Amino acid sequence: MAMNFTENMSQNGSKKSVENSGSIFEIEDILKTLDRPRTINIERNRSFDERSMSELSNCLSPRQFFKDPEYSVHVEHLESIYSPSRRSVFNSPRENGYFESHAMVADAWEALRRSMVHFRGQPVGTIAAVDHSAEKVNYDQVFVRDFVPSALAFLMNGEHEIVKNFLLKTLRLQSGEKRIDKFKLGEGVMPASFKVLHDPVRNNETLVADFGESAIGRVAPVDSGFWWIILLRAYTKHTGDSSLAELPECQKGMRLILSLCISEGFDTFPTLLCADGCSMIDRRMGVYGYPIEIQALFFMALRCALLLLKQDDDGKELVDQIVNRLHALSFHMRSYFWLDLKQLSDIYRYKTEEYSHTAVNKFNVMPDSFPEWVFDFMPTRGGYFIGNVSPARMDFRWFCLGNCVAILSSLATPEQSAAIMDLIEARWDELVGEMPLKICYPAMESHQWRIVTGCDPKNTRWSYHNGGSWPVLLWLLTAACIKTGRPHIARRAIELAESRLSKDHWPEYYDGKLGRYVGKQSRKFQTWSIAGYLVAKMMLEDPSHLGMISLEEDNQKNQVIKRSASWSS
């Protein structure tokens, strides 16, 4: 059945007739306008983990299917299995209508469409939350990082225009002058968010960006530029259309973003030095220095840029710089940020106050500063990238986003990726609990909370960024699970989310050690909670979607290097 029906949502939720969506949800939109109940019964495809290896053997052998004999899945193999040419065997969710038949997914799409923002008749993004019961503050704005799961959902559903418009509008905002007080920001800084201002007198609309001047703490968003590059690559990969990335404006935008990060300075490490509050954790949480989230996103953005940048007169020198930085960054992160039982045992015995290049304790970390919880937290099998490494400091906290992105970008080796998944399974109650997923673990309490957060009333223990549970992280976990060949972990987490998420009206985050309670200041109908669930569902149903957000390890640029004697004996 083919028909054209136009429905778009403005910021306040009202409908505008603007564009032909052409999606599988046209039927839903028509029935909604007629105020009729939807009754669509279509048989559901079995998801990836329910299909037997014998079914997949028609396409490839089990040994071919798993990159690592036990864990890792080749994205290219997934794409070949689920490619359009094989739809007679594995129909995509878009074709078979499975998502229309699932009440919670239909509810999620309905809520996602209510969050859509339009600028001069075109969809340009989704606002952070559509919660009319709470003060808007800045939740009525389109955040770059928040829009990423929304964009992936739209791409997976064949709705490309909103993603393209978003990429172009944020690029245009990048080119404007950025000032905080008397200080001018770097030309390549991307906005944290923007909003559409309506002038009813002049009947005009303008886009107004926030580069950190209105944020809590007045910190510029380091992650926005990285997410923009990652999303541009996802758009190009999924649509097969490279014309957008090849535009001179996009090429210049990427160069400006990366020039901010790889310019020479006083740094002795290839990692990026950052202030607190420059990413998803946008409040004071002791993540200043070299946070894992920024380093993983930086690595992934560099790899995506390599695929997108033209090697012309303007781009060739930058490409060479990117290659060199990737080589140094991967070595540094895999060597000094990685923690497993063996490494924990080694650094526990470090001596201090060592000098010269032969020092074993390279960063002069004091073993007495190690928190007691980490010794019980570390399983026999498993490991993870710790939160931060800098002079005399190791932040042993687990951060979900950074570790998942490390897997997707192949910053983590196949063995490290498998160990991260081992850790999640071994510490399920701590990291997942009753509502996925902990943004970080463990929470800071008492004196530590007072000193590190500045007595932040929003980041009390097991709440918000301080050990709160964030449903949006579900899509990152699912992608990591599929890439490492463990979709059963994702299915288990999704089932947990489905038990409450829609009934609780899609909260921003949950509180409590197990994530049992809706967050005390959590907005309802939080858009990235909605979109994160949709992306997780669609990706699990059709794992070929993983290709737009995952990068395989580049073995040609990965020379075998042993860690220097200055770090471990």
TrEMBL record:
<dbReference type="InterPro" id="IPR024746">
    <property type="entry name" value="Glyco_hydro_100"/>
</dbReference>
<dbReference type="InterPro" id="IPR008928">
    <property type="entry name" value="6-hairpin_glycosidase_sf"/>
</dbReference>
<dbReference type="GO" id="GO:0004575">
    <property type="term" value="F:sucrose alpha-glucosidase activity"/>
</dbReference>
<dbReference type="GO" id="GO:0033926">
    <property type="term" value="F:endo-alpha-N-acetylgalactosaminidase activity"/>
</dbReference>
<dbReference type="GO" id="GO:0005987">
    <property type="term" value="P:sucrose catabolic process"/>
</dbReference>
<comment type="function">
    <text>Invertase that cleaves sucrose into glucose and fructose.</text>
</comment>
<dbReference type="Pfam" id="PF12899">
    <property type="entry name" value="Glyco_hydro_100"/>
</dbReference>
<protein>
    <recommendedName>
        <fullName>Alkaline/neutral invertase</fullName>
        <ecNumber>3.2.1.26</ecNumber>
    </recommendedName>
</protein>
<keyword id="KW-0119">Carbohydrate metabolism</keyword>
<keyword id="KW-0326">Glycosidase</keyword>
<comment type="similarity">
    <text>Belongs to the glycosyl hydrolase 100 family.</text>
</comment>
<dbReference type="InterPro" id="IPR012341">
    <property type="entry name" value="6hp_glycosidase-like_sf"/>
</dbReference>
<keyword id="KW-0378">Hydrolase</keyword>
